[in-house]
Design a protein that fits this description.
The chain is α+β, with helices and mostly antiparallel strands. It has a single domain, classed as 2-Layer Sandwich (Ribosomal Protein L30, Chain: A). It is 32% helix and 27% strand. It has two helices and three strands; from the N terminus they run E-H-E-H-E. A three-stranded antiparallel sheet has the order 2-1-3, with no helix packed on it. 15% of the residues are buried. The model has no long low-confidence stretch (mean pLDDT 97).
Length: 59
């Protein structure tokens, strides 16, 4: 199963509430924090919502 390394690169200050909730649900609470998630359609959908705020690496 592939792992996704998701790193938050931008601030949530000007973001809409849906994006803020999605980032918090992924565990991205601070800038430059990286979380490791298992690749699934649910996680991919969450990444799509905040794709402009995060960097994603697949390993």
């Amino acid at each position: 199963m592939a792992k996704l390394y998701i790193t938050r690169r931008r601030s949530l200050i000007q973001s809409i509430p849906k994006q803020v909730k999605t980032a918090k649900a992924l565990g991205l609470t601070k800038m430059h924090k990286t979380v490791i998630k298992t690749d699934s359609p649910t996680i991919r959908g969450m990444i799509k919502v905040i794709s402009h705020l995060v960097d994603v690496e697949e390993k």
